[in-house]
Amino acid sequence: MLQKLTFRKAWNFFLLSISYLLSTITKKHFLWGYPSGLAIEPSSLCNLSCPECPAGTNNLSREKGFMNLELFNKILGETGSYITFLTLYFQGEPFLNNRLFDMIKRAVEKNIYTVTSTNGHFLTTENVRGIIESGLDRLIISVDGTTQEVYEKYRVGGDLKTVISGIEEVVKWKKKLHSSKPFVIISFLALRTNEHQIEDIKKLGEKLGVNKVVIKTAQVNDMSCWNDLVPADEKLTRYKFIDGHYELKNKLANRCRRVWTSPVITFDGHIVPCCFDKNAEYPMGEINVTGFKDIWFGDCFRAFRERILKERKTINICRNCTSGQKVFVIFLFCIIILI
After folding, report:
1. Nearest to 3 by CA among 114, 147, 160
2. How many CB atoms neighbour CB 233 within 10 A?
3. Count of CB atoms within 10 A of residue 18's CB?
4. Whole-number Å distance between alpha carbons of 20 and 1
């Protein structure tokens, strides 16, 4: 990703980092840069029915659909000169959008590090070649079990053989086309149903030839009651169960780098503060109506950041979020860039 940095992007990141650091220390709002990262939602629809996913359970309270290429180009035209990292997923399955490869190509042309995440059911030979030829930098594939019986307990409606076959296609075509990209990651969501297969997924990843296997902790949507999906091993969960409800293990600090560095844009152009705002409960503006610059530096976003600095626990989407635990990491990185 460092290869994507230009002087302009590095300087923007430095200004952004200083802004965030000063804001967290003084509890006053500072913002001197544009976001260094951006998440865009190609699709809010999904082919699976995962129990903790709003898209899969049809619990998204906002409209569903696909982002069109015209809107994507408008977003990139207004943000592409300073963002370094583009995440092409939010809710839904990105590969359901038939313009996904065009989106990736546009971002690559602007020297932006591109990432997308998939449940792996659309990794056909044609799509895999499209992935590689588009120049995608990182591909995350969710594999939450090493046997069909375990896998389908969370990935409801999914077929493990199809996913594994797709991963094999990606690895095979990378070799055939002599491409080092995309960097392929298997993402394993640790649950009570699959925590006994963690060593197995690591072995499977090695066998398949992926670049990395990542074990992730799961988010539960309803923290007010017991959830059978939360792992028994406390090391594999972000929660503790107290007095009949879940609480985050770590203290919810009045800071969050996401709202300074990486907003999210839904498929229809609504800008929300971060990826925890799945239902767009806190819309900052609509890029189809207002320019990105005016939204980013606008009163609505400013008021939200100020609220983060003073009373974050009162914000609904923040109560279940693990961001904001470390404040000096981003500052250290910007100092390195400056040196």
Report:
1. 114
2. 12
3. 18
4. 21
Per-residue 3-state assignment (H helix, E strand, C coil) for the chain = CHHHCCHHHHHHHHHHHHHHHHHHHHCCCCCCCCCCEEEECCECCCCCCCCCCCCCCCCCCCCCCECCHHHHHHHHHHHCCCCCEEECCCCCCHHHCCCHHHHHHHHHHCCCEEEEEECCCCCCHHHHHHHHHHCCCEEEEECCCCCHHHHHHHCCCCCHHHHHHHHHHHHHHHHHCCCCCCEEEEEEEECCCCHHHHHHHHHHHHHHCCCEEEEEECCCCCCCCCCCCCCCCHHHCCEEEECCEEEECCCCCCCCCHHHHCCEECCCCEEECCCCCCCCCCCCEECCCCCHHHHHCCHHHHHHHHHHHHHHHHCHHHCCCCCCCCCHHHHHHHHHHHC
28 and 1 Cβ atoms separated by less than 8 Å: no
What digits encode the pLDDT tens for the residues 264-309? 999 999 999 999 999 999 999 999 999 999 999 999 999 999 999 9
Query: Which residue reads 């390195």 in tokens?
Result: 336
Tell me the sheet residues that pair with 216.
189
Q: Are 254 and 25 in contact (CB under 8 A)?
A: no
Q: How far is it, in rounded angstroms, from Cα 64 to Cα 223?
A: 25
Q: What is the pLDDT of residues 156-184, one digit of tens each?
A: 999 999 999 999 999 999 999 999 999 99
187-230 pLDDT, tens digit per residue, is 999 999 999 999 999 999 999 999 999 999 988 887 778 888 99
Of the candidates 305, 315, 314, 302, the one whose C-alpha atom is nearest the C-alpha of residue 256 is 305
Beta 183-190 vs 138-142: how paired, if at all? parallel
Token pair 């207004």: residue: 78
